[in-house]
Each structure stands twice: as C-alpha cells, then as structure tokens.
C-alpha cells in the first residue's frame, strides 16, 4: 500500500531504533492515513483554488500596491484580519 522505499526506510532504519512492533506501527500508520486522507484532499483542493485566484490576480495586476494586494488576499481568505493582542495561559 505504501511506496516500497518508504516501507524499507521505516522498517530498516527507523523501527529498529524504537520499541515499536512493526505490525502495530503499520496498522496505526494506515489508520492515520485513512482517517485524514479525505480532509487532506479537501485542504489541497482549497490550496489549489487559492493559488489559482492569486495567479489570476497577478496576471490581471502586473503593477500593484502592497495595500491592494493585501486587500485581495483578505478578500479570498488567504489572510485573516489582524486581531488584538492576547495572552495564552497554560496553567
């Protein structure tokens, strides 16, 4: 299921340095791939959509101001508005 080079590398170079059972590792790895592959595909599609919009914008705006570019990036959701400073506690 995984590329032979990856399998060989994990089996020969990584797993011997750990106390992990190879069968358990590959089962867990397979489970992670299955769990996140759909959302990863969606995120990659979103990224491609953003990049396409950015490429088109640059084609249509060969000379532009930084402000115009930032406004465009905000309008497509590539950038988010700046929020006030905040503090995170880890107590």
Automatic annotation (TrEMBL):
Record field: transmembrane: none
Superkingdom assignment: Bacteria
GO molecular function: magnesium ion binding; malate synthase activity
Domain Malate synthase N-terminal intervals: 7-61
Record SUPFAM superfamilies: Malate synthase G
GO CC list: cytosol
GO biological process: glyoxylate catabolic process; glyoxylate cycle
Pfam families linked to this entry: MS_N
PANTHER family xrefs: MALATE SYNTHASE G
Protein name: Malate synthase N-terminal domain-containing protein
